[in-house]
Structure formats: structure tokens, C-alpha cells
Amino acid sequence: MGFDMNHLIELIPDINLAFLQTIYMIAISLVISTVIGLPIGVLLYVTDKGLFLQNTWINSIIGFLVNMVRSIPFIILLVALIPLTNFLVKTTIGPTAASVSLSVAAIPFFARIVETALREIDKGVVEAAIAAGATPWMIIKDVLLLEARSGIISAITLTLISLVGFSAMAGVVGGGGIGDLAIRFGYYRYDNTIMIATVVILIILVQLIQLIGDKIAKAVNKK
To answer: Which residue from 26, 61, 120, 140 could staple onto 163, CB 3.0 to 4.6 Å apart?
Structure first.
């Protein structure tokens, strides 16, 4: 079956619903991954060797947990987190359920990028703040997060793009969204029209996220 414009028009309500489900999933997951991943990324940096809150044990434990989750393929993570998902949202299908696995996958991803952004800060700036008598909290709030703001925006952008890909994969287990639409119509029914449409939608969405993210990162980086 080739591309059929009339068939595509008929499917517009389904496509709109799937698109909104995808936005819903990645929005929830982004908020959760940012709220939890940001302090984890900061903690990974400030507890590292030679930093003002150096703590080898904390750094090693958090680093191990972050690496462990990141090493698990998302499709396996989806299945492994079914009990947790069912406990938290009382269901294992739909966009809300998929948001649990998406959040768990995105937290360590975002945390590592935040850590990398913090490492790009000139250590002299941190040392100057310490010499001036700044508390650890003041250094984190007024120096680290301020200096790394452009890198953090880029981290959010990269996380969003990864979440788009993960959300499409969530369709395999009935997570809803664009991926679910592609599986149900495009794969099981050999519907090339919906397959092409979903791919185009995902490409456009990723390009828009990257464009907007780059512009914001450049804007906040202006001294």
C-alpha cells in the first residue's frame, strides 16, 4: 500500500490524538527528569575529587546507579518497570504509564549532561567564590548554575529529543502517542501512509526542539 492522501485525511483525528499524547508524555517526563536529574548532576560534580564537597562514596554510589540505568536498553527498561508503573499510576498502558519509564530513562541521561556542562566551568571562578567565603549552596546557586546555564539549556534540549525517540518506542507496549499509532496502523496493517506521516511528524518535532533549544542556549549565553 502506497501513500494515500485521502487516507491520511481520514486519519487526522487519530494523528492529532497521538501527537497530543506524545507531547503529554515528554512534557511530564521532562519536568520530572529536570527536577530530579539537575540536583543529581550537580551532586555528581561537587562530590568529585578536588571539588568543595568531595565525597568519594557518594560520588561512586550515585555514579554507579546513573550508569546502571543508562546501560539498560529502553525497551527492556519499559518491561522491567511494569510493577513500579502499575504501583504508581494503577495501569501499565497509556501515556501516563509510559511517562514513568520515560522519566526513569531520562533522569540519568540529563544528570550526566548537566555534570558535563558544570565541568566546562573555569575552576578559577569556583575557587574565587570559595575564597570570598561563599557557602556551598551559594556556590551552586550563584556560580555553578549561573555559569552553566547555556549548557543546562542544551541538556534540556538533548533530553527532549531523546524523549521523543523513547516515546515512539513506548508505543510497542501500548504507551500511546505517535509510536503506538505507527505500530498499530503502520506495522500491523502495513499502512505506508501512516508510517510516512508519523516519521515526518517526529522529524519535524525534533528539528523544532533543536532549533528552539539552540536559540535559547545562545540567548542565555550572552554576557
So the answer is: 26
